[in-house]
Structures are given as C-alpha cells and as structure tokens.
Hints:
It is built from two helices and 27 strands. The chain has one domain. By secondary structure, it is mostly beta strands. The strands form two sheets. It has an 18-stranded parallel beta sheet that branches. A nine-stranded parallel beta sheet has the order 4-7-9-11-13-15-18-21-24.
Amino acid sequence: MISSKKQFVATASIFLLAMLMSTAAFAQATRTWVSGVGDDANPCSRTAPCKTFAGAISKTAPGGIINALDPGGFGAVTITKSITIDGGGVANGGILGSGTTGINVNAGATDVVTITNLTLDGANTGINGIKFNTGGTLNVINVVIEGFNASGDTNNGRGIYFAPSAASKLNISHLNVHNCVGGILISGGAAGSATVEIADATLSGNINGLRANDRSIVSMHNSVVSHNTSNGIVVSGTTAYSQFNLDRSDLISNGLTTPTAAGLSVEGPQAIAWASGNMITDNPTGFRSQSGGNLVSLGSNTVVGNDVDGSPNSTVTGR
C-alpha cells in the first residue's frame, strides 16, 4: 500500500507536469498565422490559424511575425511591442476600420513595428488608417489605405497619423493613400522630433496630401502627390523647427476645389523646405512660402502650368 507521503509526492509531480504542459501550450510563438476561416481560440499556428490580428498578437512573441494565409478581413489591432504584420499581399490581408482606427501603435521606446503587404479600408467612416503614438521605429511597406474620412477632430481621417510623444522614426516605401481627409499627417512631440523617410508613395484623391508640423524632419523621394482637393504638401513650423526635403517627385493637379491651395506650401518662421528635381504643375499655386516660411530650390525643379507658379525664397546651385 502506497504511503500518504508517496501519494502526495506523486500527486504534486502530476500537477507540476500539467502546469508545465499548460505553460508550453500557451507560450508565445515567433511566427503566427491568421485566416479568413480561422478561430481566435486556436493557437495561431499554420494548421490552426487565428481569425484576427488582435487574436494573434497576444500569442506572438516580441519581434515575431503575424502572417495572413488567405484573403480576409482581420480586424483592427493595437500594437504594444516589436512585431511584423504581413498581409501576404494587398489582395490577401486586410483591415476594415469602419468607425475606428485600423492600427494603433503604442509600443516601447526601442520597439520596431513593421506593417507590410496590407490593405486598410475605413469604409468612409474610419478614424485613421495607422496611428502612431509611441515606439522606436515604424516601417510601412507596400500598403494601401483608403476610406478614412472621420470628422470631429482636425487630426482624424488620415491614412497615416504619425504623432510620436518622443523621438521616433517612420520609414515608408510603396504606399498608396486615397479617399481620405489627408494622406499623411506628421507631428513631432514635445519630447523629440518625428524623423520620416518616404519613397515611392502615391497620395492622390484625398482632401490634403501631406502635412508636416513642428518638430518634423521629412525626406520624400520618387513620389506622387496629385488630384487632392486642397494642398499637396504643407510644411509648417510655427513654434519649433520643421524641415522637409523633396526630391524627384510630382505635385500635380492639387487644389481641385480650393483656389488658395498650393502644390508645396511652406508656412511659419521655423519651417524650411529644400526642393530638387521635382515636377510641380497644374496647381492653383506651385511654390508658396508664407508667414516666414523658407522655400529653397536647388535649381532643378520644373514649376510650370500652375495658375500662379510662385518662386522659392532662394536658389542654391548644387556643388
């Protein structure tokens, strides 16, 4: 007959083993999957995928990747750690952000968040496509954003609203934003600047194309800002320094319903824009600087065919 002491040890061992097995079963994975026919009760493995990004993110380890297996709408999500969300191509992964923000980023100061191969649709009532509040770096690669038109707040309705509370970085490559109040809004926080690199972006068919406010340092290359009903690009520096570098880009047919709009407008005593190799045409005003803004041309821009072409404050010959 087994003694009570041996019975206790055996029972404790079984309990400990069960606990270890349970912990392993719920351990976060470095790669998880979502599917249009998944279930958030699943472990988010490839063979048992989750239904939503929100369901998968809690089961994905920091620095891990969430992949979409097939076409589907995978729901709005808040990101609080380093992670990659890969929609598998714009025909696959999607977020329907009707009446809400598609992706909120509230990550740690050194965290890196990557959003790639994804379509975000606000169904004309969405608040913002991607809203960045805190984090180290946000990468947005091969993303389509449309239909974010919420009103009630001057910062609503943006494809990307990058408003870090401390110094943070945004990298954009192959982005298309249309049918929004604004394509991109950048505002650095009081504790540091917003540093932004944009390449191969198209901001077209919105009300405003892009706005960079105080504490923004932005470089934009090989991009198109066109057919927005108001301004193409506004660089504003009223109380803090703001710098914009625009290179080899097209600002075409903006101000469709706003006669006071400009292709590139630099506003405020602490705002400066450097322009090189750009085509700026068919806007109410091409180049505009006001309220002390400083627009500097490197002498290789084509500014023609606007109602008023405008001129830079100065021209610097490259060396």
